Amino acid sequence: MTIWTEKYRPQTFKELIGQQEIVSRVTAFVEKKNMPHLLFAGPAGVGKSTLALVIAYALYGEGWKSNFLELNASDERGIDVVRVKVKDFARTKALGNDPFKIIFLDECDALTKEAQQALRRTMERYTKTCRFILSCNYSSKIIEPIMSRCAVFRFKPLTQQDIQHLIAHVAEEEGLQLDEKAVHALVELSEGDCRQIVNVMQSCASSGSVITEQSVYAMAAQARPVEIKEIIQLALQNRFLEARDKLLDVMLSNGLSGIDVIKQIQKMIWDIQMDGRKKVSLIEKCGEIEFRLVEGSDDHIQLEALLAHITLVGQ
């Protein structure tokens, strides 16, 4: 089966969706064939790695692999990688008439502090022959000397309009049928992550060309918002036992963990009609329960405690 995320990966700047301000500035660098070291920071699935590859396609054409080194820093993050692989590639000139090579370090916020210290000197020493593109989810984990050597671009989650454009494009190319509720479900689940959308759509398409809201939530391993809303409303109406039974049924039928459920409950609280102070109280309790779950507490006990608190707030 074709991996759709690779199939729909853009190869030119015009094919990129969203991040137009960043794309326009990077395009200017490529057209002049001169660019600084780049640092791409932002959440997952918003186009950081794709933009790095598009830069390589634009600069080097079909022979881009000869002048482009990609390392996933989450797998290879020690100081030896910087001293050996990175330095050996950086010290040689680019093939052909290309002005410089590119080293792309994906997830570089996973690099150890020692590796980052070694990297900063390499970035400075081999500027004539090599440019670095660093990609990370959390720029706060990158040391200041590296930040000061790079042009920093902060990526934002894709907008709803961009997500809908991607869904429509994939559906047209693959001959899929989606109703309005299914599209809305995909937009809600993605949270600006286009990679997740393509993966969910591919999973749904494996069972048929018609994608429904129910199949989307089933493939994404999440409960439907209607079910979560019903649980909260039952608790607010002082029907604690019914709310508990409904919660257990939803968790078992969808194979959800406590963390999955608490995140959906937290989102749904803002859509419930109630006093603002009560909403704040419930959000605070969600944070407390989520912390306990992360620390290893029992999922069912903690979620029942949350439902009990919601019931008391409703009274």
Description:
The chain contains 15 helices and seven strands. It has 315 residues and is an alpha/beta fold. It folds into three domains: 4-154, 3-Layer(aba) Sandwich (Rossmann fold); 160-219, Helicase, Ruva Protein, domain 3 (Orthogonal Bundle); 225-314, Zinc Finger, Delta Prime, domain 3 (Up-down Bundle), CATH 1.20.272.10. Helix 12 runs antiparallel to helix 15.
Keywords:
315 residues; alpha/beta; Rossmann fold; Helicase, Ruva Protein, domain 3; Zinc Finger, Delta Prime, domain 3; 3 domains; five-stranded parallel beta sheet; 57% helix; 10% strand; elongated
The CATH C-level name of the largest domain is Alpha Beta
What portion of residues belong to β-strands? 5-15%
Distance between the termini: 53 Å
What's the name of the CATH homologous superfamily of the largest domain? P-loop containing nucleotide triphosphate hydrolases
**Given the C-alpha coordinates, what overall shape results?**
elongated
Provide the domain count: 3
Give the neighbour order of strands across the main sheet: 2-3-4-1-5
What radius of gyration results from the CA coordinates?
24 Å
* CATH level 3 topology of the largest domain: Rossmann fold
Find the structural class using helix and strand composition: alpha/beta
Instruction: Give the CATH architecture of the largest domain.
Output: 3-Layer(aba) Sandwich
Mean pLDDT: 86
Sheet with most strands: 5 strands, parallel
Pattern of helices and strands: HHEHEHEHEHEHEHHEHHHHHH
